[in-house]
Amino acid sequence: MAKxxxxxxxxxxxxxxxxxxxxxxxxxxxxxxxxxxKKWQHESPTSRAKILHQxxxxxxxxxxxxxxxxxxxxxxxxxxxxxxxxICINICEYYAEKGPxxxxxxxxxxxxxxxxxxxxxxxxxxxxxxxxxxxxxxIRVFAPNFVVGNPMLLKHAHNVPGSAAxxxxxxxxxxxxxxxxxxxxxxxxxxxxxxxxxxxxGVALTGSERGGSSVAANAGKNLKKSTMELGGNDPFIILDDxxxxxxxxxxxxxxxxxxxxxxxxxxxxxxxxxxxxEVLHExxxxxxxxxxxxxxxxxxxxxxxxSVGARDKLAKQVQAAVDSGAKVFYQYPEIKSAGAFFSPVIxxxxxxxxxxxxxxxxxxxxVVYQVEDEDEAIALANNSSYGLGxxxxxxxxxxAQELAAQxxxxxxxxxxxxxxxxxxxxxxxxxxxxxxxxxxLGMMAFVNQHLVIDVSK
Length: 457
Ligand code: NAP
Hints:
This protein is of the alpha/beta class. The protein folds into two domains: 250 residues, Aldehyde Dehydrogenase, Chain A, domain 1; 187 residues, Aldehyde Dehydrogenase, Chain A, domain 2 (3-Layer(aba) Sandwich). The protein is 40% helix and 20% strand. The protein has 14 helices and 20 strands. The strands form five sheets. A seven-stranded mixed beta sheet has the order 12-13-14-11-10-16-17, sandwiched between helices. β10, α9 and β11 form a beta-alpha-beta unit. The radius of gyration is 23 Å and the shape is globular. The site of NADP nicotinamide-adenine-dinucleotide phosphate has 32 residues, from α7, β8 and α8. NADP nicotinamide-adenine-dinucleotide phosphate binds next to α7, β8 and α8.
């Protein structure tokens, strides 16, 4: 792991450094969070929900500041950073409004007696998050667990430490009590020790398969419940009857939103042959018209990637794909800059033996496949070790729903691409991980479903 540093990927200049905590600081943090958990056991979710409304207000008040540090640290376009803050405000409002109701005891019909189960907090949660949505990834764990009564410790990615610090400050300013969200900059070894601590009761990680399997193994070794939100290689299936206008509109951002660095970006564009040329033409049009530049400017539509290292890794993946027979249908002209710019690529002719066939390319690279018909499209979509999201573009929504049920992913969007909101469960199957975040499902991730039954006659 690299050190916790803020480096602006637009200029490649470092602007801040952060120290790892001492063992004493870590112990004090866990203790503070655990003490709050114990206190919260005697308070109702409704009282925390009120504070979560205030946290939403605090985020609203600090939207520009939060958006600016995210853009400076990981390069996403400023207007997308602002959208991210707004999504987070809505997630906080969603759990503030619906959370207490979701946590009411659930009656159980049983011949053995009058039964129900309580939905109780379990303790402190360790959240381990990636840089691609610096605030949203935090809030996905923080907001539901705050209402539940599970305090959260955060280990954010090494390249967004300033965003992590500001998020913690904004939450505190909203009135969240000390210990409800503690930001730390631990090493991997320190993280292992935190997970092993008996006061920690859950581990939520969003990130790559590599990071996920390592942290999940440690959680498993210590019998800690975990949720893993990992990578994806999402299929985007275009059927014969796709509405051309819908297709055009969705393709405009399907592979380039957030600089193409979204777990649920449409990474594999799977097209029935009657629409193949049209899709290649449309996608090329989108890529050609991108305007590389400063992500702080409204005129920019192609930001740098999050780091020079990530850019170089993606370039190697594309080269390996080409060396194995992929064709470059289009590549954006070279971008001369000290920043982490990657010129977007459209690849075709990626066959099953190509390394690119079953690996995630986390940046603006679209791999386009031609298939005979929808059966072949579904088979190709499912021929992946990932299973996060998928899209189907078709004018026949009933039929698209039937096909959605055949796709091995945790989410399918019909006539759209990446989407998220408080009420929509987020997560995948296969190597894309396990568990769900957001919605009522996500809220139950670290809840003790505690059976109480009266068997007296
Ligand atoms: P990553 O390297 O796995 O990092 C994610 C987090 O885990 C970071 O805080 C990282 O810390 C930490 N980490 C990584 N390896 C670790 C280890 N061995 N021990 C302890 N901590 C470790 O992922 P990334 O490359 O930053 O993020 C991009 C990935 O996230 C993509 O694969 C993307 O698809 C996925 N993602 C998934 C979702 C979802 O909801 N399914 C959402 C967003 C992103 P350091 O930064 O300090 O290494």
